[in-house]
Each structure stands twice: as structure tokens, then as C-alpha cells.
Amino acid sequence: MINMVKIVDLTMEIREGMPQHLAHGRSPLYLSGTRQHQMWKECKKPNPYDPSEMVSFQNEQIVICGHMGTHMDACFHADPLSKQTIEQVPIDRGYGTAVWLDVSFRRAPRVAITPEDLEVAQKQSDATIQPDDIVLVYTGWSTILEEDPAKYSSDFMGLSREAGEWLRAKKVKTVGLDTCNIDAFATPSPVHMNFLRPRSLGLRNADYIAIIENLVNINKITTSRFHFVGVPLPFLGSTGSPIRAFAVLD
Fold first, then answer.
1. pLDDT in tens, 119-166
2. Of 187, 212, 186, 148, whose CA–CA distance to 19 is shortest?
């Protein structure tokens, strides 16, 4: 018997004009493709299964930032001495057992999530964070994406320095959240430095914690523990990559 599973898509829709962190350049730019249906139709090659139609194809070219939409950071994004660009990130940083913490009770512009907030969220959850877990933090900030995308990008919530330290102490391997920056607004990016530049803490390069930003629909996950999938594309030499993120529920 095949076990039935439920899939929850956690990925932001990719489109021109989508909200972006201000440091990540402009939104995607869709260009005309090298092939279009109308051009192929003029070749007048009948569809072998329906001669009333012509065989045709279309494609497109898309100019994107490596940190566009729902994406994962490589260590080189935050550490100039690191040699880890996105194609070198192990696939298992975007795959494995996961839990989600609901801190949406703090939802407000430019709020810094604290360890106390995470403690409250973990107590309200049925799952305890285990070493090597992937942790998704639901701030609720993603709910303003449609109503006020500019505010989403300019007044985002994020984790405080202490919250990042709390998660590191749990020995997690990846942390994602539903805002455009894992760091709280107007801070010197302590969480990025903690997670992606572990040498600053006297740790090994291998002790980094992967970062995923711009998740959506975390609150639609109906179990506290689940499997997460969200792996980057192997763009050679890139500091980040969009991912297709989703939760797999038994």
C-alpha cells in the first residue's frame, strides 16, 4: 500500500515586480524567447497525433538575482574568505526532518524576534527541535505580500542576534523564515555572520547553518514535524539560488 502524503508549497511566486530585499537588485526580468509558437507554426509541420494542428514550441529568457524570491544563501554570500558558492552546498541542507515555530504573535513592522519568542513558540508546538533539524520560523510577515509588497520589503521582521545564537545552540542545520531577511531590520546582520561565517565564532567552516528567506504558507503546515524539501540550483560561483520549497506531511 502506498502511503498518502500531503504537499504544502512554501515557495513565493516568481514574477516581474515581485517584492525583493532592497540589497538584492531589481525583480526578475522576462525577455522574449528564442522560439515562439507562431514562428514554429509557420514551419508547417503537422502534429502526428492531430494533423489539424502544427507542431510548435515556445521558451523564454529570464534575468534574475541569485537571491530572488524563495532562495538559499551560500556561505560566500556573507564570507569573502569562504570558498563555498551555491553549487557546493550539500543537497541535504535543503532536505530533511523539519519543525516550524509560530511567532506570528509578534507580527509588526521591524520587530526583532527574541529567544523568548522562540521558546514560547516551541512550547506551543508538539515537536522539540533536534540536532540537524531544519527550522522554519513563521512570523506572519508574509501575509502582507499582496496587500503591501513595498512594506514587505522595507519594514521586514527578522531574528535578533540572540535568537540566532539560540538556534545555533540547538545544532540545527538550516533555518528559513517568511521574510526577505533573516536578520532584524537595521542591524549589522549578526544572524548572517553567525550562520554563514562560523569562523567569526571560532568554529569550523563546516559548522555553518544554511539560510532560506522569503518562504510563504508556513502556517498551512498542519503538523509540527514534517519533511522539508528546498534545494538550490547549482549556479557555478553564485552566492545564492532560488529554490522550490515544500513540506511533505505524512
1. 999 999 988 999 999 999 999 999 999 899 999 999 999 999 999 999
2. 148
Burial of 38 (0-12, 13-18, 19+ CB in 10 A): exposed
Pairing of strands 246-249, 225-229: antiparallel
CB atoms within 10 A of CB 42: 9
Instruction: Name the helix (H) or strand (E) containing 86.
Output: none
CA distance 37 to 42: 9
Classify the phi-psi angles of 70: left when phi > 0, otherwise alpha if psi is within -120 to 50, otherwise beta.
beta
Which triple of cell numbers denotes residue 15? 514574477
Counting Cα atoms < 13 Å in the Cβ hemisphere of 55 gives: 7
DSSP designation for 191: H
- Residue 146 grid cell: 499582496
Q: Is the distance from CB of 62 to CB of 31 less than 8 angstroms?
A: yes
Q: Comparing 115 with 38, which gets the higher pLDDT?
A: 115
Q: What pLDDT digit, counting tens, does each position of 19-29 carry?
A: 989 888 777 88
**Among all chains, which residue has been given the C-alpha cell 497525433?**
49
CB count in 10 Å sphere of residue 24? 19
C-beta neighbour count of 13 within 10 angstroms? 10
Domain assignments of the chain as residue spans, ordered by start? 29-63, 71-249
Compute the distance between CA of residue 72 and CA of residue 79 in angstroms, rounded to an integer.
Answer: 15
Give me the amino acid identity at 77. Answer: H
**What's the CATH architecture for 71-249?**
3-Layer(bba) Sandwich (3.50)
The C-alpha angle 217, 87, 136, rounded to 5 degrees, equals: 25
Cα 194–chain centre separation: 18
